[in-house]
Amino acid sequence: MNEHPSAVRRVQRPEQREDVLNALQALGDRDYQERHWRSGHGWPDLTAAVHWLIDDTFIDQAGARALIPQLFRDEQEADRAQLVVDALLRVLDDLGPTAPDHAYLDHPAWISVLHAANAALQVLSSDKENS
């Protein structure tokens, strides 16, 4: 089977990319967070989202661009994911790893996590190349 020249570049770890996409979706959905994370119910929880995005990828140590083409198709995707990790780390660094979920959601910088995750999800979930 031949790939069309304009076909989307494939990543080497599609299952791990799916975890990253799930993390971004949860981190960018305030309604989901209010319904599930405040009550302590729902999957993925905040811990899983952080784990998939940071602990499993090591973006915080190596940078997202180091994961092209393993997880990200190009620099635009990597840069968007990096912005989410940076925003999330600002909140995590401020509150520490053991604060209750609602403390993260109520942090003044959480809005940056929401916006960055939504922007990243739009870029990463696109199946078409941007022209």
Automatic annotation (TrEMBL):
Pfam families: DUF7945. It comes from the Bacteria. NCBIfam families: SCO4402_fam (NF047838). This is Uncharacterized protein. It comes from Microbispora hainanensis.
